[in-house]
Design a protein that fits this description.
Blueprint lengths: L20 H12 L9 E4 L7 H6 L16 E5 L2 E11 L2 E9 L4
Antiparallel strand pairs: 1-2, 2-3, 3-4
Length: about 110
Amino acid sequence: MSNESGDLGLEEMAPPDRGGPSQIVERAAGDLEAVFDVPVRVSVVLGRAKIPVANLLKMDIGTVVELDRQVGEAVEIYINDRLVARGEIVLVENRLGVTMTEIVKAA
């Protein structure tokens, strides 16, 4: 109903409380909990090369294949064949590893 001034007399409503950012993050992590143990394939690509089949057939032990990257250039990190990051090769207790230096945004 309206009063004499035409005002409906409605009270201003506040938006519902959806929680702060920390509650949103906790909820998102909880929603993902069902897939935490699903395995994914991580691949790190040092570089690529195109060679003729004739050269491929001549390869033997000790043959060096020249890649399209230079020493120190970033490597590509793929998860399930999708490029997700770039990084640098590191040595971790006599094993190779990769440090992510750039996250690739989804297109």
